[in-house]
Amino acid sequence: MAQAVKTKTSSRGKVSPARSEDQFAAVRTLFENRRAGYSLDAPFYTDPEVFAADMKGIFGQHWLFAASLAEIPEPGDYVTIDYGPYSLIILRTDEGVNALHNVCRHRGARVLTEPAGTTGNLVCGYHSWTYDAEGSLIHASSPGEINFDKACFSLKRAHSRVVAGLVFVCLAAEPPADFDEVSKIFEPYVAPHEIANAKVAFQQELIEEGNWKLVMENNRECYHCDGHPELACSLFPTWGLTEELVPPHLEDAWQRNVTAETALQERCNRYGLPYEVVEELDTRIAGIRISREPLDGAGESFSATGRRLSKKLLGDLRDFRLGRCSMHLQPNCWFHLLSDHVITFAAFPINEHQTLVRTTWLVADDAVEGVDYDLESLTYTWKQTNVQDKNFVEMCQQGAASPAYEPGPYMKSEYQVEAFINWYTQRMQEHLG
Ligand code: 3BY
Ligand code: FES
């Protein structure tokens, strides 16, 4: 879009206007030539210029999941997160959360270099320029320096919003207007788990050797879920099937699933928890899917028996048998909300062929490790599943790099992948003009 080119051409010392125009045209042509219903052409996964366009058109424009309040429970707590070239400080303050660009206004150094910590003021490690929690420059002494107006050199800010304990940021000057509507949809599903009052039991960081879109595509289908034997133990064997597709040997399992669904719906009604599936995949700027489903066995948690993995219920929840409430949001996150724990997943693109996937397990604040939960058991299913997903993503990245790769058709069971790609394509085409 003209806006992207203008930004580039007006910043001195960056890419020249001519090169920027060429880059813009080539990426736009890729979108114009895309075959609907098929996976993307290889450059969408392998080309640094498409990655640069994604960073502007998706990560530079839309609301992004950053962290949860459980990761920054007290004022002064912060995490630093990167979306491609952008680096942000997500700082808890007395009033809420500030998202500040982690780029010193002196000579551009990263102000904070640790992934997480607690700080009063923000002190750049290079020449000690010091900023307060709002990003205002409060200290920048240098011998003989006079008439230096500190007010002109505050840290740049991004927009931030906290919804039901989840922190979202938007890097655009004008954030998309529909986030209020989308947050009203998911707030009632997430709020009962009281994420703001939960604590981090464990955090896993996996660097996947794959483009961020492959990470998201893989998350949006369970066609490959035979590759997740530990997760499959928690799900009904008929998961993902419709009644007419159930083979004779799974008819009993189908009936158990139907019975469990009815019981779960009744329980949700009794406790005032929303049960309906929400599916607004490519119609909204944000894109959202929420579904609540029973789990097999005891139906309480992601364990082989379905039994609870933490003895403490989250928030004011009054029953362990709430199955799993799974939420997908475009472009970079998904969540599993259970009665005894919540798992947040965030994809942070690094470059065109690498993505950091950060998974965070949250339990009730008063749950004691070794007493109320065993960390290995709590994290087992999704640690295994994540490593398997990493492998699937990397298989695809390797395939996309081959001259023999060509886009293949999405199956019906991959409609959510197709919806994600359609969402991405539409937003990028709007952005590129
Ligand atoms: O449920 C999830 O989070 C998805 C489904 C398939 C891949 N991933 C395990
Ligand atoms: Fe931060 Fe110099 S670059 S104080």
From TrEMBL:
Keywords, alphabetical? 2Fe-2S, Iron, Iron-sulfur, Metal-binding, Oxidoreductase
Q: Which segments carry the region annotation Disordered? A: 1-20
- What organism does this protein naturally occur in? Zhihengliuella halotolerans
- Domain spans labelled Rieske: 64-169
Classification via InterPro entries = Rieske_2Fe-2S (IPR017941), Rieske_2Fe-2S_sf (IPR036922), Ring_hydroxy_dOase_asu_C_dom (IPR015879), Rng_hydr_dOase-A (IPR001663)
What's the cofactor? Fe cation
* Ranges of Polar residues composition bias in the record: 1-13
Q: Which CDD domains match?
A: RHO_alpha_C_GbcA-like, Rieske_RO_Alpha_N
Which top-level group of life is the source organism from?
Answer: Bacteria
**PANTHER family in the cross-refs:** CHOLINE MONOOXYGENASE, CHLOROPLASTIC
Q: What is this protein called?
A: Rieske 2Fe-2S family protein
Q: Can the keyword Iron be found in this entry's annotation? A: yes
Query: Which GO-annotated molecular functions does the record name?
Result: 2 iron, 2 sulfur cluster binding; iron ion binding; monooxygenase activity; oxidoreductase activity, acting on paired donors, with incorporation or reduction of molecular oxygen
